[in-house]
Amino acid sequence: MLTTDAPAAYLDHAATTPMRREAIDAMLPFLDVQYANPSGGHRFARAARRALDEAREVVADVVGAAPGEVVFTAGGTESDNTAVLGAVRRRGGPAVCSAAEHHAVLHAVEAGGGRVVGVDAAGRIDLEALAAALGELRRAGTPAAVVSVMAVNNEVGSITDLAEVATVVRREAPGALLHTDAVQAACWLDLREAAACADLVSLSAHKFGGPKGVGVLVVRAGAEIDPLLVGGGQERERRSGTQNVAGAVAMAAALRLTDAERATEGARVGDLRDRLVDGIAARLADVRETVPRPLKVAGAAHLCVAGIENESLLYLLDEGGVCASAASSCAAGAMEPSHVLAAMGVDRAWSAGAVRFSLGRTTTAAEVDHAIEVVTAAVGRLRGFRAADVGRGTAP
To answer: Which residue ranges make up each domain of the chain?
Structure first.
């Protein structure tokens, strides 16, 4: 059996969050004694269906939707794909999104020959560029079918004012649906307000203490899209396949608690985030906070550190028991800057050392203090190596 010691500091909550105990407890009966298929006709199946309907009602309340508008999916990627591709297939026009979207949206838009619009220095969609793109498509006789703009950026944590986006979309593309990937928003924003103007809203349970493999796409009344999965006609024929009752019940439990605790947790985590960033910046020169704090969520601590490569830094952080991530991927043996940072115009000298620390419900002051010590030592070590290489004339 694989066993792994818990990290000294888990600061990768944007990747996934620890499951809440309450979500695990809610889920377990549906993996053991209440295992019926909710599509069945007998009383055992009807009990499963009631549990699914109750979970749907909880999600609807937190998101600000009607229960019938909640479609359970297998996660955020499926929800995003369904929103973008389903709208394009039903409506016939192209999709439009920002250059800083998650690849679940970006690749779906690009696959359909859609438009990608630039962002500002904080990673938020450029509203003037969006208006120009939508107007151009309309005048060409190919009006946009859907516009997808994330509520909170998954890398840098910047918040987009969706009401401003909706104003542009309704003016320049009145027939288009507005979709928001709100996967990173549930912990930090009241979705009843933040996503009220969106026709389609994507969520993923494991980002707020639920299990992996279950998500939601809110499809508001009148927002007609084609399903990606067909067959049994479940979810009002918007997503066929036997529903994951255990996952939906656990998701609802986690979302309900997240909603109840959001204000107090946001303030607490924001203080810890500031402690982390300020502590690192006080000990190290040439460290930049990628997005100003008033423009991002409390859990986001994305930094760019000059004079290092983030791949090496993450290795040393892992050795020191600190879990974090980078906004880069390895291609052909070379680290490439993330598409988000590139879209934001972050110089390669800074993006090479980009690190995403993301805090959450279980983050403690002890974790933050440990991370400050490990990051300081690791960066100093890497800069020392680089200085030595420069002295020998071997540095690039």
So the answer is: 21-258, 262-386
pLDDT digits (tens, 9 = 90+) for 313-352: 999 999 999 999 986 443 333 456 689 999 999 999 999 9
pLDDT greater than 90 at residue 4: no
Closest CA to 258 of 17, 85, 28: 17
Q: Averaged over 295-317, what is the pLDDT?
A: 97
Q: For 262-386, CATH number? A: 3.90.1150.10
| Domains 21-258 and 262-386 agree in fold | no
State the average pLDDT over residues 113-138.
98
**pTM of the predicted structure, to 2 decimals:** 0.94
Q: Which of 187, 197, 323, 330 is catalytic?
A: 330
Known catalytic residue at 330: yes
Classify 21-258 by CATH class: alpha beta
- Burial per residue of 91-125, b for 16 or more beta-carbon CB atoms within 10 angstroms, e otherwise: bebbbbbbbbbbebbbebbeebebbbbbbbebbbb
